[in-house]
Design goal:
The chain has about 190 residues and is α+β, with helices and mostly antiparallel strands. It has two domains: about 40 residues, no CATH class; about 130 residues, Nucleoside Triphosphate Pyrophosphohydrolase (Alpha-Beta Complex), CATH 3.90.79.10. The protein is about 15% helix and about 40% strand. It is built from three helices and twelve strands. Strands 4, 5, 6, 7, 9, 10 and 12 form a seven-stranded mixed sheet that branches. Strand 1 and strand 2 form a beta hairpin. The protein starts with 14 loop residues before the first strand and ends in an 8-residue tail after the last helix.
Length: about 190
């Protein structure tokens, strides 16, 4: 097959015939879409996890240190180093959510917000978007107020310290790493 001939070719859109609701899972809602395969016309049941959109915040201090959070993650059973972030509440815009998450998780605030980008975390099964923000010249103005299920330690790292944590494997959150690459070259040694 000549791949160049397929350069501009796009797969067909599947037709959804009906939706079957699945269990409500706190931050995710499962549903099953019945779709018709565009070529074979065969109906197939596919899982979709519905979720509110998310935000991740690359917060840098006036000294250009990166604000990070360390917390236990239930999915991996490990303590991780990440950047502040979380779920956008119903009716909340991404910038307001970024401001809220930074303050709740770290006690930091910022007047200089820069929108970096957004990505689809896993379009194979998730229907949401993750927004990336840079809180430039963030300062600690109060106490953190984490959610009930969070036990967070806040720290600031130089770029070299952050790179060391990434190389050591303690900073592994893929969306947080991607957000950081919008501001820094985190892979440089």
């Amino acid at each position: 097959m000549d791949k160049k001939k397929n350069k501009d070719k796009k797969p067909a859109v599947w037709q959804r015939h009906h939706i079957e609701k699945g269990p409500h899972l706190e931050i995710l809602r499962a549903r099953f879409d019945w779709l018709k395969h565009p070529r074979s016309q065969k109906e197939m049941k596919r899982l979709v996890l519905e979720s509110n959109d998310w935000v991740n915040v690359v917060a840098t201090t006036p000294d250009n240190e990166i604000v990070v959070v360390r917390q236990y993650r239930f999915g991996t059973g490990k303590i991780t180093t990440e950047i502040p972030g979380g779920i956008i509440d119903h009716g909340e815009d991404p910038r307001s959510a970024a401001i809220r998450e930074l303050k709740e998780e770290t006690g930091y605030t910022c007047n200089n917000w820069i929108y970096l980008d957004s990505v689809e975390p896993n379009p194979a099964i998730l229907n949401n978007v993750c927004h990336f923000w840079h809180a430039k010249d963030a300062i600690q103005t109060g106490e953190m107020n984490p959610d009930e299920g969070e036990d967070i330690v806040v720290a600031t790292l130089t770029l070299d310290e952050l790179r060391s944590e990434i190389q050591a494997g303690s900073f592994r959150h893929s969306l947080a790493l991607l957000a950081l690459t919008k501001v820094f070259d985190v892979w440089k040694r």
